[in-house]
Design goal:
The protein is mainly alpha-helical. Helix content is 70%, strand content 6%. It contains eight helices and two strands; from the N terminus they run H-H-E-E-H-H-H-H-H-H. It has a two-stranded antiparallel sheet. A hairpin with a 5-residue loop joins strand 1 and strand 2. The longest helix has 27 residues. It is globular, with a radius of gyration of 18 Å.
């Protein structure tokens, strides 16, 4: 195996072009259907990853997760006790952006796409047992079944769409994370937002909007990084 082509010399080959074109096409479709019910399940999966990131940060800092909720209006709540609050708060938006990047990168190879689908299904199954409302339970069950059907089609037929499903979820998650940060933390400045709460406990002189801008920039870097690293992997 050769050295990674960090400089993207001789870009772009057929796979790299297909990668960029597919991301562009998915972005166009997502923006076109943004306010339709067709994207609602995928928006809710992004909310799920946001809340799951809060929960993961809580567990990694020795806290206790008491429950998770995802609502049909694209809101969500993670109830925690203990843990490092200053890490739990930003973990939602930044974690969601990170998982979007990870899914985009996983889509560059069939094996990694299968691993990503399996990890997502396991995460949904785990959260199913601590879900506190039926919207989240339905989302978990629905996407587990959806991923299982796609996986079976991948194995039993010539329909090879798992990589594209993982890429679509990754692109959707990345775009929605950036939009969600802007909508929740910058344009409307919700007083109960994670950024406002973080500003209260952070010693530096930044308000919630400033932290929203910082988190938004980081999320955008994750999105650009996913495209760059994807091109490196496919070179």
């Amino acid at each position: 195996m050769g050295e990674p082509n960090w400089g993207l010399k001789n870009c772009c080959n057929h796979e790299q072009v297909a990668f960029l074109v597919t991301i562009g096409a998915f972005t166009f479709v997502i923006l076109l259907l943004w306010r339709t019910v067709l994207l609602t399940p995928f928006k809710l999966i992004t909310v799920f990853l946001h809340e799951a990131s809060h929960a993961l940060a809580c567990k990694l800092t020795c806290g206790q997760v008491e429950g998770i909720q995802v609502h049909a209006n694209e809101g969500g709540v993670t109830k925690t006790r203990g843990g490092a609050y200053w890490l739990i708060l930003p973990a939602g938006y930044l974690g969601s952006s990170f998982w979007g990047m990870a899914l985009v990168l996983a889509s560059t190879d069939l094996i990694s796409a299968q691993i990503a689908a399996g990890c997502l299904a396991v995460a949904l199954l785990i959260v199913l047992f601590i879900a506190q409302n039926w919207t989240l339970r339905g989302l978990c069950i629905g996407f587990i079944v959806f991923l299982a059907v796609i996986w079976i089609l991948e194995i039993k037929t010539g329909v090879k769409i798992l990589r594209y499903v993982i890429l679509f979820i990754g692109v959707m998650n990345s775009l929605f994370s950036v939009y969600d940060i802007y909508d929740d933390l910058i344009s409307r400045r919700v007083n109960s937002s994670d950024a406002e709460k973080f500003a209260e406990i952070c010693p530096c002189p930044c308000n919630g909007v400033a932290w929203g801008v910082i988190w938004g920039i980081i999320s955008f870097i994750f999105l650009c990084g996913a495209m760059y690293l994807g091109l490196v992997i496919l070179s």
